[in-house]
Amino acid sequence: MSVTAMDIYKLLPKTNCAKCGEASCMAFATKLSEKETDLELCTQLAANEMEALENLLAPAVREVIIGKGDKSTIIGGDEVLYRYELTYYNPTSLVIDVNDEMDEAEFDERVKTIENTEFERTGELLTLDAIALRNKSGDADKFAAAA
Hints:
- This protein is an alpha+beta fold.
- The protein is 31% helix and 16% strand.
- The protein contains five helices and six strands, in the order H-H-H-E-E-E-H-E-E-E-H.
- It has helices spanning 5-9, 25-33, 47-57, 104-116, 140-146, and strands at residues 64-66, 73-75, 95-99, 118-121, 124-127, 130-134.
- The two termini are 42 Å apart.
């Protein structure tokens, strides 16, 4: 269920101060419901009101960042649980796992295969987005060496 401007407006201070750049709190609520502005622009909110609005505006599926820097990928962050309700904004990442108990030759071969894997699905060329390293051995040093 999507959040309406009236749902948001009920939690705003209703001062119409225009510090957010909008003429009224209702206009600000409308922009928030359409994801055209940021909640932080409302400087009149108390901490508990801010938290209530953040929870109200949070996506149904929380965003998760996997990896670091330019190699990172984002999954989740979607407003709906099913694609037919709206759309998915961050597509699911394709990930294959390796574990730290593999011998070096097998590990290297698996990583090379993963890096070179690509396939076509519905006219789109897909590649694997990440490699998940599992600590199967339970040994921190062995896990760190594999990473």
